[in-house]
Structures are given as structure tokens and as C-alpha cells.
Write a structure and sequence with these properties.
Layout lengths: L9 H11 L4 E3 L6 E5 L3 H11 L8 E3 L15 H10 L4 E6 L6 H4 L4 E5 L4 H10 L3 E2 L14 H7 L6 E2 L12 E4 L6 E4 L5 H8 L3 E2 L22 E4 L1 H12 L5 E5 L8 H5 L3 E3 L4 H16 L5 E5 L8 H13 L1
Parallel strand pairs: 1-7, 3-5, 4-8, 9-10, 11-14, 12-13, 12-14
Antiparallel strand pairs: 1-2, 2-6, 3-6, 4-5, 8-9
Helix pairs in contact: 1-5
Bound molecules: threonylcarbamoyladenylate (TXA) and magnesium ion (MG).
């Protein structure tokens, strides 16, 4: 049901029709925009991999309207999954669980597990409810690029190939969901996100961190993921000031993303619009990071210097994405 009551909003109806026809739709979630396909339609799922340029063995995340649908997709939902879901669904948490027998190999990349989440964004919820089934959706960006946090980013990534792009404003979280694998003991945090390690451990007890040899392939966990085209270099405030001095004495054009105002060495950069100031809190920084990287990527700089994030656990997801962005350079 739409906010107007009764009839569906026209854009939701068009997106549902496209999904039923096996076409792709982009939709907002609270984390990033997703590139969605009918999770029960292998040909539509193939189209997602093809459009993204993503290898077929890198699985997609299944999006459901509610936890009630989980048993249709997952074999033996463990109690801990329900306990986490009760607290964090709908929300920015993805659970990796043993898949049900009839789940498409195309969705899971041939693995025996399935990654699943219930997104909170009202447009995602409206779409999932109107569609009445599962929607498989990776982030709506080409393979290895920065994830989109606004509908305009999706159109930039995919000028063609997406039947409907649903508008949902800027994503409130701004970084991809936390992924935790519950198919093994101890559970393992595969991708840090807004639901932090401490919050997970409060429910699960001690968990393992990062991909291990037994982990399925996670493209978000390959180092070069989440990268702009301009090389990203992580730097301290002192390094950045030194780079500004060096840039002043050469023709090098560098752009900076920092959490503070430009020091005197960097005012020239600032006046050229090459100094972007980011929020000083992790939540605000997460929300703006990908849009900032996209913006900085367009400045034709030879490098983007990004001030290192604090070591505090609140910044775990930001540090993870920044390290990956920097690994590409
Ligand atoms: O916030 C998000 O999670 C966004 C929105 C659209 O929901 N989606 C997203 O999807 O980030 P994607 O495909 O860009 O990242 C999904 C990650 C990939 O790293 C993938 O390998 C991992 O989830 N994944 C999927 N199935 C998995 C599985 N069975 N085991 C381990 N990791 C899995
Ligand atoms: Mg992605």
C-alpha cells in the first residue's frame, strides 16, 4: 500500500511491473541504492551481474519486506538470527544463513549460503510489499566503483539498462550494510557497517572478524572495492599540510577530504575548491563519504588525499571503506 492509500504510487507500480517482466529496477535503501531483480527469476539475476560487470561467483543480497518471509528462503533459521532480526530489522544488517534448497544458484553464486536483509527505507519497503516477493540487489554501481547514495548517482553509473530508478533522497546511513555470517561458529563479521561489532557481540557473544579461508567470496572484501577513479591516499593532518606545500611548488593538483578546516599551508587548495570538509562524527561522515568521493573524483586531481579516520570502533566501517578505496591506487 502506498502513502496515498489504496492504489500504488505510479512509480512503485512501474517498478513492480518491471520486476515481473524480468527487468532491473534501482531503489533506495537506508544504506545505499540497490540494483534490484526478481530473486526467483534466474534470467533477471543474470542481467544484474551483466550490467554491473560483476563475476558470477560473487553473490547478491536478498531483500525481503519482513522477517516473516525468512523461512521461505533459508533452511533452519537459527535462534540467533531471530534475535538479531528482532533488534535490527528493518535496518542495515545482512545475515548470511544456510540457503533453502530451491534458492537459485545465480542468486547465491553457487554457494550453500544466502545473504539476506530487510531494509528500512520506506520506498524499499513499499516496493517489496507491492512486489510480494524477494528482490535480489547488490549496490547499484558498476563492479568496483563507489556505491550510490542518491538516485542521481545510479543514473550516472547506469545511463542504460535500468527500467525504473526509484527516487528516495539521500541515503541516511550512506555505507553498505553490516554483514555477519551465522552459518559458522563463532559467527563472523564479514563487512563492518552501521551495526557495530559491540552491538553484534551483545547478542552473539564473541565473534570472528574479517574474511577467512572458509568464507565465501565477498566482492566488498576484495581490497580494490569502493574505489573512485582518482587514486586515494590516506594521510595524517601533517602529511596533508606537507602535500599542500609540495603542490604549491609544483603543478600537481591534489584534492583533500578532511575533518577540519584547511591549515594555512592549504588555503590555496581551499580557494580552488579542492578542500572538502567532512563531518567530525562517524554517522555524519558515513552519510556523506561516497557522495564526497564522487565529487572529488570529478575535480581532475591527480590524487585525493583523505585524512585517516580515528581508530575508535565507531569509525570501523568508515576505516574499512577508506582502506579499500586507497588500496585501488
Ligand atoms: O547495504 C547493502 O548491503 C546494499 C543494499 C543495496 O542492500 N547492498 C550491497 O550489495 O552492498 P553488494 O552486492 O554490493 O554487496 C553484497 C555483499 C557482497 O560483498 C557479497 O559478496 C556478499 O554481500 N554476499 C552475498 N552473499 C553472500 C554469502 N552467501 N556469503 C557471504 N557474503 C555474501
Ligand atoms: Mg557493492
Amino acid at each position: 500500500m502506498s502513502a496515498t492509500g489504496g492504489a500504488l504510487a505510479p512509480d512503485i507500480a512501474a517498478a513492480v511491473a518491471a520486476l515481473r517482466a524480468g527487468d532491473l529496477v534501482a531503489f533506495p535503501t537506508e544504506t545505499v541504492y540497490g540494483l534490484g531483480a526478481d530473486a526467483r527469476n534466474p534470467a533477471a539475476l543474470q542481467r544484474v551481474y551483466a550490467l554491473k560487470g560483476r563475476p558470477a561467483n560473487h553473490p547478491l543480497i536478498l531483500h525481503l519486506a519482513s522477517i516473516k518471509e525468512l523461512p521461505r528462503w533459508v533452511a533452519n533459521v537459527p535462534d540467533v538470527a531471530y534475535r538479531l532480526a528482532e533488534i535490527y530489522w528493518p535496518g542495515p544488517l545482512t545475515l548470511v544463513l544456510p540457503r533453502a534448497a530451491d534458492v537459485s544458484d545465480v542468486l547465491t553464486g553457487g554457494q550453500t549460503t544466502l545473504a539476506v536483509r530487510v531494509p528500512a527505507h520506506p520506498v524499499a519497503q513499499a516496493l517489496l510489499r507491492a512486489f510480494g516477493g524477494g528482490i535480489a540487489a547488490p549496490s547499484a554501481n558498476r563492479y568496483g566503483h563507489v556505491s550510490p547514495t542518491a538516485a542521481a548517482h545510479v543514473r550516472e553509473e547506469f545511463p542504460h539498462g535500468v527500467a525504473v530508478v526509484l527516487e528516495g533522497g539521500d541515503c541516511q546511513v550512506g555505507l553498505e550494510s553490516t554483514i555477519v555470517a551465522l552459518d559458522r561458529t563463532p559467527p563472523r563479521l564479514l563487512r563492518p557497517g552501521a551495526v557495530g561489532r559491540a552491538a553484534l557481540e551483545a547478542v552473539l557473544g564473541p565473534i570472528a572478524i574479517g574474511a577467512d579461508a572458509g568464507s565465501p567470496r565477498v566482492p566488498g572484501s576484495t581490497p580494490q572495492h569502493y574505489a573512485p577513479l582518482t587514486p586515494v591516499v590516506l594521510a595524517s593532518g601533517v602529511d596533508i599540510a606537507a602535500a599542500c606545500v609540495a603542490a604549491r611548488n609544483s603543478s600537481a593538483r591534489v584534492a583533500v577530504l578532511a575533518r577540519s578546516a584547511a591549515p594555512p599551508e592549504c588555503t590555496a587548495l581551499e580557494s580552488q575548491g579542492l578542500w572538502l570538509r567532512a563531518p567530525t562524527d562517524a554517522v555524519g561522515y558515513s552519510r556523506l563519504l561516497y557522495a564526497a568521493l564522487r565529487m572529488l573524483d570529478k575535480l581532475e586531481a591527480e590524487r585525493i588525499l583523505v585524512e585517516r579516520a580515528p581508530e575508535d570502533p565507531a569509525w570501523d566501517a568508515v576505516r574499512d571503506r577508506l582502506e579499500r578505496a586507497a588500496a585501488a591506487g
